[in-house]
Amino acid sequence: MESLLLKGSTSRSIPSFQGLRAAQTPFRQTLPATSLPAQQWRSASSKTLVRAAAAEQADATPSRTPSGSIFGREVELTGVPGVVKSLPTPVRYAVCGAIIVGSAGVGFAAGSKFQPPVGQVAGVVVLGALGAGAAHVVNSASKEVAAADLHNSLVRLSDPLQLRRGEAAEIANKYGVSLEDERYRAEMKDLYEKFVSSVIPPGNEPLRGDESDLIIRFKASMGLEDEDAAAAHIEVGRRIFRQRLETGDKEAAFEERQSFQKLVYVSNLVFGDKSKFLLPWKRIFKVSDAQVDIAVRNNSQSLLQAQLDATKGEFTVDNLKELRALQKKYKLSDDLAADMVRAEARKRVEEYINQALDVLKARTRIKDTTKVVDDLDAMRAYNAHLAALAKSASADDLLPGIGPVSVFGGEYDTDRQMDDLKLLYKTYLSEALNAPRLSTAQTKAWAELRNTFGMGKCEAEEASDEVTRKVYRRKLANLVTGGELDRAASKAEVLQELCDSLKFDPEKAAQIHEEIYRQKLQQCLADKSLSDDDVAALNRLRVLLCVPKSAVDQAHGDICGGIFTKVVDDAIGAGIDGYDGDMRDAVRAAVKGLRLPLQSALDIATKAVRAVFLTYIKRARGTMSRAEGARELKKMVIFSNLTVSQLLDDIRGKTDEPAAAASAATGEGSGPAVKAEDGKPEEKEAEEGYDDEMPLLQSMRKTKGQQKEGKAQKEVSVKDDLELRERLDLYKSFLLFCLQGDTTGMPMGTSLTVQRDTSDFIRLSQLGDILGLAPAEVSSVHQGLAEQAFKVQAQTLLADGQLTKARAEQLKIMQRELGLPDAAAQKVVQSITSTKMAGAIDAAIKAGRLSVDEVKQLKESGVDIGSMVAEKVRLQMFSKLVQKEFEKGTGDFDEKELLEKLPGDLGLEEDVARKTVKEIARERLKGALVLAVSNLRQKKPDQVVAVLNNMLACDKADAATESLTWAVKEELLDLYSLFLSKHDAESSAAGRMRELLGIDDATAASLSEIVSKGGFNLDVDNSVEENFVF
Questions:
Q1: Of 578, 635, 914, 899, nearest to 766 (Cα)?
Q2: I need a labelling partner for 391 at 20 to 30 A (CA). Which of 67, 381, 413, 638 fits?
């Protein structure tokens, strides 16, 4: 049951009922077989509901009622109901009273014959009761008679709406029946139910829109309360549900769902807001509120769509107001109504578009584009009319959604159809631009058309630019061929006027001028050369179109350069052997015929040659061995000497064949100096870039020989294509190849080094030029290899780390052979000796055998102590030496030795040394007093004096701010007395000791006097005697 509503709805906002087979209404089975079908009754008129239908009666019983009523036949009353119907109400009541009285009288008379008075009473009671019962039967028949009379009254009416308001109450009063009587109310509900069933269209038949009004009028005529009427609507829904369950046809079941949706919608219109309480669809039929909303939405849209279809998109203020009233009546939301209005207006716009496209797509050679423009103008006028309607009245008076529309959401809202719209847009623009001058109204029309077609800003600009370019080209061609541009005093003014008339961007016009110039240049270069006539024609075109020189140069560089690039590629691709006289002539002819600037031609050739160089380098990197890679680099150098150098000379127009022949005959390197274009000889740059002070290594000297093939060139290099590290690696790899020589494979996986070719060193120098290496960079590579070779030999010679005089002479000989500078050789030797010495020092440190004196000796020998001995180790050595100074017992502290000289010898910072000394002095001073008292108690006067002297030494290093404290003051006095026994009482040492021990001047003077008189004596043997006695 939950799908009763949803399955009957469709995905479109306006359901389509066409194409569905007509189905029999589910309520037709409740009517007699001879009754008139409800749909025929509905189609007669919205005001006349029931028409008398002539039908033959199957039964023989004559009838005075029409046989086609939706309420069935008249009810024939027989027996008691027939009698009651013929009696007026007062007579009926009198008859009932007479029956009761008569029955009681008969009972009384009969009882008189038997045992009066008891028999009389009994007779009255019994027969009176029987009379009362008979009277009740007669009176109760009035309810059936009233119901039948109401039924027959409606059957006799040709239109149920002819029933007068209150007529049902009059019939009830006629027979003395109350409107609240259950039997009479049941008949009223049954008649109302049949009326509702006949009004609701069956199956897929659409609503007319007046169903709710008809039902409301009939309900008012019947005098039914909303509760009773709502119950009738629910009963109709139950019948539809039962009909759906009983049918086995899916199509019929679908039609029943459609009927149920229409019942729900019409019922909601009849009862309005009360329908939420009077019609419990959700509880009875298990449908949700959303499903009810769908039924209401679909049917309301269907009704409004029928009205919109009738307008055919021709909207006026009057019909929009009428539609607004209908929308409110149908309870359709403003959003849905607005969508429907826009869709209807969009259909009208699409009709105009279809008419225009039919003209454009017609299979005729000549197309009437003015008809296209007229259709599109009519479409714009229609949109303008919609905009005017939207402003003509308040928003609540007119149907929502009225206003200009676009193709979004319609037939043309696809990428494929957008191409057709662009075609229409371009056609419209083209017709507008054919006018002598573009007006503001036309540009406004473009914007309106763009909005209607739903084109984006970029799309519209692209289409506009395309059309405007074509029109501009056509009008520009007319100006040139007509001679108007030639006769103009100012070409720029004429061109600017043309741009203004088309509202065309001058910069885009300049681009078109450049394109035209390029096309003309390509036509002139059909034979791959420019004649004088071609140059004159190009100059004329450049003047007419005001093409700037930079654009002309760019065009020549691109087009002529492309042709020349192919010539250069062919020349380079020919290889060393293929670059013969014919190829050189072709290069010279291309340079002359294309009239390229010399620098442009050289740039093209340089770019092509660099690409070939990089190919060689790539192959060299991809080889499996260094020798194979070096061979590829050698091929690159030979290619540079034999092909690239000649190619560059041919581009410059040099003729050096006699010089080359003379060079080959004499075996000289690069031959005599070659004249440049200005006739002046070029200076030889043999040693350019090398300073006089720069060392010339042995391997570098070999690169200064004479070459065997061609002529070296330095113009083209791969300096900008490779990183410096990569270029140095390539140079170093080839240098190693030159030093080690080529190798050849031998059996068993071995290789044999063949004789080295000294000419490879000359190619090495040329490789440096190709790689774009500076002399300093080349020198660094050679020096690095020389240092590496020298280091290997020196490590063997200095295996024990000892550099003797004989070994120094041998190292000097090796240095001269390699051509290594003195500084570099000395650096290598120091590195080796330092490494060996560092191992020995590390072993001495681990064994604890390294002393301060040894460190001093190492420093005097030139050893870097800071790198050889860790700072922590040196600081430990310094601390130990300071502690020894504080343990001498002399009381002396050499500040210059301990705080300046010794830290310098050990490579320590002075601040670190001072901090270390103060920390040691502070710690020892704290424990010195305890040690002195201990020695005092042990009767060791010499050690006591030594400890006191150490206290003074610590105090000199870090002066104490407070005197020392001790619990037994007499022991402090004894310590001071012992100190005076070894020092003069007037000395500064005695005064400082007095301050450290906290002894006042009077006590100190007394003790000094006692000591001076020999009164103080520390009995050394006293402890021995005491121990002996004990």
A1: 635
A2: 413
Which residues, including other chains, have CB under 8 Å from residue 218's CB and lie 6 or more apart?
160, 161, 163, 192, 195
Report the alpha-carbon distance of residue 568 to residue 605 in Å, rounded.
Answer: 6
753 three-class SS: strand
Phi first, then psi: what are they for 398, rounded to 5°? -100, 160
In order, the DSSP letters of 59-91 are SS---SS-TT-TT-SPPPP-HHHHHHHHS-HHH
Adjacent-strand bridge partners of 752: 744
Tokens of 1011: 């000591």
pLDDT tens figures, 176-221: 777 788 888 888 888 888 899 888 888 788 888 888 889 988 888 8
Contact 360, 327 (CB under 8 A): no
CA distance linking residue 748 with residue 352, whole number of Å: 91
Of 689, 598, 694, the residue nearest 652 (C-alpha):
598
Beta bridge mates, 745: 751
Distance between CA atoms of 551 and 509, rounded to whole angstroms? 13
Rounded-to-integer distance, Cα 912 and Cα 917, Å:
9
The one-letter code for the residue type at 756 is: R
Phi, psi of 256 (to 5 degrees): -65, -35
Chain segment 316-325, per-residue pLDDT in tens: 888 888 888 8
* Residue with tokens 């003309």, as numbered in its chain: 520
Assign residue 37 a region: left if phi > 0, alpha if psi is -120 to 50, beta otherwise?
A: beta
**Beta carbons within 10 angstroms of residue 699's beta carbon:** 20
Q: Tokens 């009059």 sit at which residue?
A: 170
Residues with Cβ within 8 Å of residue 69, at least 6 apart in sequence = 35, 36, 50, 154, 155
Q: Which H helix or E strand runs over 744?
A: strand 743-745
Q: How far is CA 234 from CA 29, 227, 418, in A?
A: 18, 11, 51
Tokens of 280: 């419990």
User: What string of DSSP letters covers 549-567?
Assistant: HHHHHHHHHHHHHHHHHHH
pLDDT for residue 160 is more than 60 = yes
User: pLDDT for 5-32, tens place per residue?
Assistant: 434 333 333 232 223 223 323 333 333 3
Is residue 364 classed exposed, middle or buried when 0-12, 13-18 and 19+ CB atoms within 10 A define those classes? Answer: exposed
675 forms beta bridges with: 681
Mean pLDDT, the chain, whole residue set: 74
Cβ atoms of 344 and 310 within 8 Å: the answer is: no
Query: Shortest CA distance to 383 belongs to which of 454, 325, 319, 432?
Result: 454
* pTM attached to this predicted model: 0.53
The C-alpha R_g of the chain, in whole angstroms, comes to 64
Contact status, residue 834 vs residue 868, Cβ threshold 8 Å: yes
Extract the tokens encoding 290. 């959303």
- Is 67:34 a contact under the CB 8 Å cutoff? yes
- Distance (Å) of CA 216 to CA 266, 401, 586, 807: 10, 31, 104, 131
In this structure, are residues 608 and 568 in contact, taking their beta carbons and an 8 Å threshold? yes
Euclidean distance between CA atoms 944 and 938, whole angstroms = 10
| HSE-up (13 A, CA, CB side) for residue 50 | 24
- Sign of the torsion angle spanned by Cα atoms 353, 395, 208, 51: negative
d(CA 399, CA 470): 45
Cα gap 431→434, rounded to integer Å? 5
Residue 566 tokens, joined = 């192919």
- The answer to whether residues 944 and 978 touch, using CB atoms and an 8 Å cutoff, is yes
